[in-house]
Input
Amino acid sequence: MKKNIYILSVCLLALWSCDDRLNIEPAQSISVEAALSSEANIKGILIGAYNEAGEDDSYGGQLQVISDLLGATNQLTWQGTFIQPREFFQKGILVDNTWAEQAWRNGYETINQVNLVIDNIDIIEDAAEADRVEGEAKFLRGLTYFDLVRHFGISWGASNTAPNSGVPLQLTGIVDYSADQSIARSTVADIYAQVISDLTSAMALLPATNDEFADAFAAEALLARVYLQQGNYAAARDAADNVIANSGHSMAATFAGAFNNDSDGSEDVFTFQVTNQTGANDLVIYYADQPTGGRQGDIAVAAGYTALFDDPVNDDRASFTYVSVDNGLDLTLKYSNQFANVAVIRLAEMHLIRAESNERLGTSIGATPADDINLNIRARSNAPALAVVDVAAILNERQLELGFEGFLIHDLKRTGTAVGTIPAADPSLVVPIPQDEMDTNPLMVQSLGYN
Amino acid sequence: MKRTLLLSYFLTFVFAFSALAQQTVTGTVTDDSGEGLPGVNVVIKGTTEGATTDLDGNFRLSVAGNETVLVFSFVGMDPQEITVGSRTVIDVSMASSATELAELVVVGYGTQSKRFMTDNVAKLSAEDISGVPIPSFQNALSGKAAGVRVTQQNGKVESGISVSIRGQASVSASSQPLFVLDGVPLINDNESQNTSAVNPLLSIPASDIESISILKDASSAAIYGARGANGVVIITTKRGKEGKAQFSLNVSGGISSPTNTRDWLNSEQYIELFLEAGDNASWTDRTFVEARFDRYSNGTWGTPDQFDTDWEDVAFQDGHVKDVDFSVSGGNNGSTYFLGASYNETKGIIRSNELERFSGRANLSQKINDKFTTGINFNFSRVTIDRVANDNAFTTPLQAIAQSPLSPTHFGASDLANTGESGPFTRTVYANFLLQDEFGSYETIVTRSIGKLFGQYKFTDWLKFNTDFAYDIFNQTEDRWDGSRVPFQSTEGQAFASNVFTTNYVWSNYATFDKVFDAHSLNLVVGTEYNQSNRRYTDVTATNFPSDDLQTVTSGATISAGNGTKTAYAFVGFFARAQYSFQDKYIVNASVRRDGSSRFGSDNQYGTFPAVSVGWILSEESFLDNLSALSFLKLRASYGELGNSEIGNFASRGLFQGVSYNQRPGLVPTQPGNNLLGWESSKQTDIGIEFGLMDGRISGEIDYYKKDSEGLLFNVPLVPSSGPNNENGNNGTISRNIGDLENTGVEILLNGDVIQGGDLTWNVGFNIAKNKNEAVAIPEGNDIVSGRNLIREGETLNSLYLIEYAGVDPANGDALYYTNTENADGSIDRSTTNDPNAADRIVAGSPVPEWIGGLTSSVRYKNFDFSFTFQGEWGASIYNGGGRFQSANADWFDNQTTDQMDRWQNPGDITNVPQARLGEGNGSSHSTRWIQDADFIRLRNVTLAYNLPNSLLSNTGLTSVRVYATAINALTFTDYDGYDPEARQDAAARTSTPGQGQTFYSAPAAKTFTLGVNVKF
Output
């Protein structure tokens, strides 16, 4: 009997529960509360935002390729098999285009992350540190909104205040998604106003140098680009001039030296960092051949580009190509190092902005337009000096210098120049609001020309 | 010793009350092997008086007189009625009942007799499963159980297999049932590192399996509580029986080929179609096309050296199968053993896809004394798989169908002389997979051990206690090497090595009470279970190798990536079940389980899952005695609540993770939190009739069920402009319990012994099931769209959602779409447009079938037997995402299907294929152009066998020799002209539901013909 009781109680003990074993914590993650509660973590979120913006969906390559393909007629050809980029080349973008969707999503992810940093900036105790962090966050936000509105909104111009002309304006970080997140589009004017406000504030908050991160001159250089897109030549000229004069950056000795740098060169004003372990450089993927790290030379330089050169024999830029192993076509040498940093702003653009603004306003702040073009841009590429440097020449020079770097469509739109037979203001040159946004956001209105 | 004492006290008691007893009868009841049978009911006919046999099969009873008839009955045995006569000792030998009703079915934590079961459980025996030499045993379930849909994802040897019981009951949480092997819930996670699934249950050879029970309704699965919502598949492995050692050897081998191939353009057609496409293009002309032809054909097109390569043929290979298994089982002196070993080598139908498996098993049990039995089940297996890329990768072999027929597969001798090039041809439309094949490798090794240590203590005959400690140790390593000549290789080679180590421990303790009091019979199970799982993952990537011959990570000069993660989950459960039956006619079964899981937040951690079922065996009633044709009639009904907890381990929390920018540490939000996240609950009602006619010659079941899933766990897409995280598989979503889903259906099962002669028998089994799946309620009634799938109230879950293709404009060859927009008066605008952006999407098809069925027939004539199983599905649609490349009237240089030659060419042409215009996307938008019905009937397996006659075997010492020929997937009847009406895309996010109705270069299943011999001695 005693033995039976003993056995029975052992059995009952076995029925005892292991309740506390149910509290298991994740090993690779921390909670939202922990992430937003310390200075080190807020700074970590800022670093994470650089990583986000540098992803292949955005500045890691696809944004620039979208711009190049949209603006191209005979300067390049698209050889690749992917359907999505081909839609940009054909100027027939479908609303379910995944590149458009990824650019949109990634842009707003970056915006949300920097909004979290700005919302929690008070947690940083040292005033100078807090300023730097806030400045960098605002730089990234300004950069992202500028590109969102340039691609998905209508061009800066007469219809700036038309409703649903811009993109949604999110200025608060979201971690709690339980509420309804529907939001309407703001106007082009509103978005540009926010971009300029953010970049101006960043200029004031950021130090003059900041390692590989955004500094005050990067913010000012970007502002120059924004003002130019608006046709505000005076402001563009002055901003570009200040960067040229005081940032400490200088043009690389040769044209080739401006590209394919593993670490930032003298001409790089702002880049996204890429190493063989981190970051993305999808410009190599689409512009280079397989041995160089690309797909199969998907984007080839065409005769229409070479025809732009006045002196293709001497100008280094005209022969800055190589023959693709995969398809025998000419590919640009600008993207021949798969682990090179991605340059967003380089000093050459500042010279071109200053020259164009001076020319249009009839001024010579910092240098005459002719000197800017001939001495600062053309000389280092061994291109002979141009006799006549007018607006048309400067716009052409932009293509010679900045070709395949994501500038063409925006230059065409701001100057009202048609893309082949398609007028600059045509709806087919505006990237449609992604289908996923239309499906989830009842306040969203699709752009003209798309369903 | 004590127990016999108790029994004799009881019997004396009985005797005291039957003082009028005139005759005492004793005896022993044995089974067909001569063993004493305990628990046999010995009842005086016409009364409720009787006795039960003891552990040794002895009974003792007092009877009134010579005319007394004693009825001996025991579940699983034919009942016997014996007149006492003048005897005082009656020994009875009972024979196993041949009818299905007498079978014991394994259910959770016990067994039940099929006759008295009030739940819906399908049972498959070893014969149903064996003889199918495919490495994945789940294939053998196909077409055998009503309402159970088994789909092989594609023709790769390691392909994931999807089992769906009574329709898809969940959206984001897994829809796979819980697999339990000898009491261990198995690790069933696809651990493949390239999004093409590896079936984790490959480790289990079919030859180990004794029976499979599929718990389909709520009442049977409720005892698995939080994990039973998708049904439970219980696998029981073979055990030994006391007696002489029995040896069994099975050897089989065979060949495989694809079940279907498609028609692609040959070189002449390709040239004709693409030159025309170039002519019709507005942005270029045929010179561009000709330049491409030059490149793809290596300059040979238009010359006598022009190639005409059948790339599809290059991608496929003749497969073969070799399978050997050997086992010995037996027992003596209270111990039983089953020892088995097996080997399988399968070369798949896709080039370079092969598998090799070794496994061994030992199931031992030892009776220590009358009360205590203990034992161990132990299994070890190692599977090595040579793999290929996933369906969406350029180097997957089946992507080769997109190559131009003008391209050669390799460079020729003249190339070696002229340009120094050799090896696979590199200037193909897409990367040439042969480069990956020859200069790269991808090997996955799964090592697994599943086992259980168990003990059973019998307090008394009717009260016993079980403790089981079970484990499942799973290890999967993947080694991938890309040599410098592999497509897209630019880092001087790359090696990737990964290791997943997952352990799953289960400790169950339960007590069983089993007693018969007169006409009442009561079975109670009460227990508790604790389950813990830990997973550890590491991987490393290296680049820059000095030579292509050095292929492991250590030889790389740069370590370019590395990962290491850990995760875990735990479940605690309490369960109880009671089954009560009265007069063997009226049965009630009730169960409850309370589960807690670490996966849910502390507010919602526990859930309670009750179930009840009732049954009434009408055929035992006296008012039905006259219907002699009706041998069995049972009505049953069940209702229960189950849970589904198969979501990520930390799905309810808001989380941030670390990232690296320029090798500086950063943080990024990865998952939005949801404190309200709770169980997905499923309420299921089942009503059924089981019947038997003509003494069980015809038997069947009809069931109606209704399964309501509430609080569906779903990854709801968030508004993209609110910035939700889009990496780590989250895709900008949040986990929510969003809505209700309903599955209703009917299952019909019929079995007939058509011919029951001595020399000739013929048995036919037929099952058919209808499942209707509908999303009943979604919050705010809004559609949820993800990719090509839609969730909308009133429609089937994950319906295909596409714009509707309207054919071709005869005037100009434009592809047309129906606008399908809603007019002001509510009608639908059916006008057509050539702008896909102007067309609205419609619900275009269901990804799952409405009807599934199977037909099994077995004929035995003397020493021959012939059996086959057909399986069919009706009502599903498949969207071929690859159609935009494969059948797109020469939109780009992919090879096209031959039907594209019917393209529009001149005004007035009536055709369904638009004009060929290179690069202009004429008709290449996602649309219903590539949706087809996926109805099919497939001859799943057919076997012809010959058993050597006993006369030949008598001197050899062999017990039986069976020679057989088997064909798997031999015939397929379908109108679907794609590769396989069953194949679905495997490169989805890591989900276990088959690509929601889509296919993308998915390989067809293999048809296999094997010959084998089975020897027993």
